Amino acid sequence: MAGFKRYRKESEVSYSLGITLTFELLKYKTEYVTRIFIHSGMKEGDTLERLKELSQAAGIEIVYTDKIFHVLSQKENCYVIGEFRKFSCNLSEKESHIVLVNPSNAGNMGTIMRSALGFGITQMAVIRPAVDAFEPKTVRASMGAVFSMDFAYYDRFEEYRKVFGERELYPFMLDAQMSLHKIRPKGIFSLIFGNEATGLPAEFANIGTSVVIPHSERIDSLNLPIAASIAMYEATKK
Question: Which CATH class is domain 13-85?
């Protein structure tokens, strides 16, 4: 295992764990791919041949080794790993955003990225402190959506608001002004969600139009990926 280390936030590269993710990586971020690792358990066939053809056409090194799999993947069925350089994105003033304030769970972030793509929202703002979008768990949970979304980090929400404040802002809070079913965005909007455990700070009630997703008293709240998905569905309905 010499030469291979577990992913760290300060690393210059990250990894796509699995062949499906690696195909997404090659499709959307080819120029950032540095190496493709193939496990000895990977079966010969059309899928492997296609992977090798795409890699070779892009001039990407293919490395046959099992060592990195012992370091990075706990999944027995992971036979392909893509290594890629981290990339930066820019958000557009002309596009709607989903905004995550202090998200702390990599799986949740990845799941929300995937849902966002499904509803046609391709831009995400993340307010620090926050989980790492390049953490392999985030990449895996996104099912490759991280490679075709634009996302950007901000140190404070006000930093984001200075650039993108001239739009419809909808912070989601339990003690909000309006129920979700009454909200119909007329233009460019941002859907704003807080931390999984604590939600948004109270001051967000004074930003834009605060929104609550009604639910029964049998639960105290919806989990973040479900709430975000419901919100995105409603906000993007024709």
Answer: alpha beta
